[in-house]
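Appendix C reproduces, verbatim, an entry submitted by the partner laboratory led by Prof. M.T., so that reviewers can inspect both the input and the predicted structure.
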Amino acid sequence: MVVRIMGLDPGLATLGFGIIECQTGEAGGRSLFSVIDFGAIQTEAHQPLGDRLQTIYADLHTLLEQWQPDLVGVEKLFFYRMGNTIAVAQARGVLVLVLAQRHLPIFELTPAQIKQALTGYGNAKKYQVQEAVARELNLQAIPKPDDAADALAIALATWFDHDRVSDLI
C-alpha cells in the first residue's frame, strides 16, 4: 500500500508543508519513505490580515491540486503567548476549511505526540526532531525552513500511527 501524506505546520507568517509517500514493507518489514516536496507558504507582515489568509487559502489549494495527498496531518495548536495563538488559529481555520472543501481526512497531532513518534521522547528538543526527520527520510541535511522540517515531522508522525491512518483512508 502506498499512501501520500501532507504534513502542515500552521502559521500566519509561515505555514510549513511537507509531502511524503509511504509504502509498507513486505511481511511487516520496515516502511519506505519518499519525500515528494516541502517548503512554506509565506505571507507578509505588512499585508492586511484578510489578504494574508487569502494567500494561505489560494496557495494551499494549489499545493493540494498539485500533489493530491490521501490524507493530511496537522499540528494542534499549543502556544504560550496568547497574541500569537489568535493569529495562528485564524490561519489554521483557513487550512481546515480548505481541507474540508477537498474532503480530505485530517489527522491532528499535538507537539508531544509528534516528538514521541519521531524520537521516542515527548519532550524532545526541536533539533532532535529535525535530526530524526532527516534520518527517517534519508536526507543529507535537515530541511529548511524549520517550518518545512516540522511539517515533514508531522507527516511522518501521521504515518507512524498506522491504526488511525488506516481508518482515515
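The radius of gyration is 15 Å. Additional entries are available on request from the coordinating office.
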